[in-house]
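Sorry, explain these tokens?

***
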Amino acid sequence: MAQDSARPAPPGAPAAAARVLLPTILPALLVGVVTSLVLLGVSTAAEELQHVLWQDLPDALGIGRYSVLWMYVMLVATGVAVGLVVWKAPGHAGPDPATTGLDAPVLPLAVLPGLLLATAFVLAGGPSLGPENPIIAVNVSLAVRAGLKAFPRTRERGWVALAEAGTIGALFGTPVAAALVISEALAGQRIKGQLWDSLFAPLAAAGAGALTVSLISEPSFDLHLPPFGRPGWGDLLASLVVAPAAAALGMCAVYAFPFVHGAFGRLRHPMLMLPAGGAVLGALAALGGHLTLFKGLDEIAVLARDPDGWTAGEFATMTVVKLAALLVAASCGFRGGRIFPAVFVGTALGLCAHALVPGVHPAVGVSAAVLGILLAITRQGWVSLFVAAVLVASPGMLTLLCLASLPAWLLVTGRPHMQLRADGTAVR
């Protein structure tokens, strides 16, 4: 076998591979553009609705925009609105979100309008979830239906990969994230040919998705924290402590997930589960403040603009409240993903570490904490490293993060995931 694998490829192999790959470019680019437009459309609609709900309406009523009363009312109302969609919409807005991850199922087309509507309500209403899981599910379903109809001889899995890659590229504003996710997914599979043959079309879709979003909305994950230069021994020690601590905190939520989900499940009806979840989220918002609402990207930018603007206790409170809000929102039936709110948890925890020990550079604390929390919540190693690295535009941070990922990964590997089977038990 070793001798066979070492033989050079036949002279005709590269040309044959190119003839296979070239026809995939145009469909991949088209899928990438469409998936990014779906994401932008839902995000834009949600932002407009958020502006009405959290600015125009309270101003008209003479109520404080982020008063405890208004936060509580809005989160319960969001629970009622999403509950109505889940109850009455065809397909009940898709499967239980606690049972899904980034690898989305192909849903019937009739389910998609309800899922999109529920997602927009969640993004606008304040629950701590992001758009990634439902938008990937919608885009995968659209791509598979349209792709197989246009090209009946193609495989479903290929369209799934294009839609996932295009959406991930659009979400993070770069195709690198999609390439890392797909590479990780392919790691346990038997790949025919070279890895880059399998990545070729998805990378084109991811590039098209990222470029479309960049041209329209100019996304950026750089938090503009105080500049971080050459790493030192103190930075290495800080990252080796903060990342596992964040992973351990994240695992607390992971272990609690089946129990919290089961508690809401005992209510049995979405018009009970979701308003009850909204009521709990309202109480958490009263404790943590308005920065613990929503998916968290705009809010982490507020924290990063003034790393010394809150005390260690305030950062710790926001960390715990946001993690609890993520746990509740993901358990009671709100449609959404967990990556973006987890980034807020990591950012608040990293700044808490800086507030407790001023020698911990804010950039090191934030990146290491985001890495650890994402490893626990997503179990996606490459995505966790990527997101933690792009928050701080510093090449020196990569070495620290790669080393810090090792003890953090030892804490999470082989343990339950923050995803459930249909019977309510945790995926491992």
User: Anything to note?
Assistant: Residues 25-61 form the longest helix (37 residues).
